[in-house]
Amino acid sequence: MIIMISKPPTRGDVLKTLESLVNGKLNQEDAADWANKWRKMDDGVYGPIFDDKVIWRALELLEGADLKDSPSSYLHVKEDFIAWLEEIKKLCNEDT
Predict the structure, then answer these.
(1) Interatomic CA distance for residues 79 and 26, integer angstroms
(2) Could you give the angle at the alpha carbon of 4 between the alpha carbons of 46 and 63, nearest 5°?
(3) Which of 71, 77, 84, 90, CA to CA, is 20 to 30 A from 10?
(4) CA–CA distance from 13 to each of 7, 34, 35, 75, 83 (Å)?
(5) Which parts of the chain are beta strand (E)?
(6) Neighbouring C-beta atoms of residue 34, cutoff 10 Å
């Protein structure tokens, strides 16, 4: 399941994506692909799509969700995704 949206992601979108990853509703490859799509779109040619540092940080984290440390094992596990979610929640709270 890939979360598709036509407008740039909001904080709510990145939180929902992280929650889906933590809960197993979204697999690591789809999460990374989703984040990578948005980071590539923000190439600076037409100006930044968004300038929210919290969203950018969440996309950086999610983009690495599918990294492997061996051919059959992922570098990041559920505990990492929980930590990422907590980090982004904290950043959202600090920036309000």
Answers:
(1) 15
(2) 70
(3) 77
(4) 10, 11, 11, 24, 17
(5) 68-70, 73-74
(6) 25
Q: What is the chain's pLDDT, residue by residue, as a tens digit (96 residues)?
A: 555 556 788 999 999 999 999 999 999 999 999 999 888 876 665 455 667 899 999 999 999 999 999 999 999 999 999 999 999 999 999 976
pTM as predicted: 0.85
Q: In the numeric block, which tokens belong to residue 69?
A: 């440390």
Tokens, residue 85: 């979610």
Non-local (6+) Cβ contacts of 8 within 8 A are 38, 41, 49, 50, 55
| Burial 51-68, CB ≥16 within 10 A → b, else e | ebebbbebbebbbbbbee
- Provide the CA 42 distance to its chain's centre, in angstroms: 14
